[in-house]
Amino acid sequence: MALRREEILESARVLFNRWGTAHVSANRIASDAGVSPGNLYYWFPNKAAIIRALFAEWSAASTGVALAGLADSGDPGDALREFVHAAERQPAATARYAFFPRELFALLHADPELAAAYRRNFEAGVDAITTIAQAGIDAGLLIDPAPRANLRDVVVTAWIASECAPAFLEVIAEEPASGRGSGLAGAILRSLLTDEGAKALDERKGARGHEHRGIRAG
After folding, report:
1. How far apart are CA 31 and CA 176, in angstroms?
2. Topology (CATH level 3) of domain 1-45
């Protein structure tokens, strides 16, 4: 039975990405999923509930949720490197759920329950990134933006760039924009790296390259 729920969500995701949420009805989702409208409503009372379920998937695949536990890492360098690795996975999540960045604010304004879930994800993500960044500052890996700027404000700016840039770049750029948001957020992070921090990230990239080559060789 749970498989049927996943089929409904997958059909909705594909349709929303292609046509936008406003142009896809619950009946259309049911038809594409190969289920009756009654079966769809057994799992989801309305289209808004489907969007919320897809948001939970998007959140689980995105950087904010991927940061869970990193803020408690005992090694600031490891936490910083793992954060960058998590950010590198963000474009795949953005591309898979492309309708969310495109329609994000309209969806949040239309559904208070979805907006509340987004705020929880945002606060958890920003808190974790701020903790990681502060540990990096204390370890000499990042430049402290104070007193010219508040660290949390810098993190929020990076979050906004990551979330909002894909939709913006879809309008002004010809190239695919799915990965550019995290790239712009990364530019903010890289601007704060000390020489020691840059070295730590380069070591991480080198280690990951050896891992991938080892996997291919095996």
Report:
1. 30
2. Arc Repressor Mutant, subunit A (1.10.10)
Q: Could you list the pLDDT tens digit for every one of the 218 residues in the chain?
A: 678 999 999 999 999 999 999 999 999 999 999 999 999 999 999 999 999 999 999 888 775 545 655 666 678 888 887 777 777 667 777 788 989 988 999 999 999 999 999 999 899 889 888 988 999 999 999 999 999 899 999 999 988 888 887 778 778 765 555 555 566 777 787 889 999 998 888 875 555 554 444 434 44
Domain-wise residue ranges, the chain = 1-45, 50-217
Rounded CA-CA distance 14/212 in Å is 31
pTM over cut 0.85: no
CA–CA gap between residue 5 and residue 128 (Å, rounded):
32
Q: Sign of the CA dihedral 49, 55, 57, 59?
A: negative
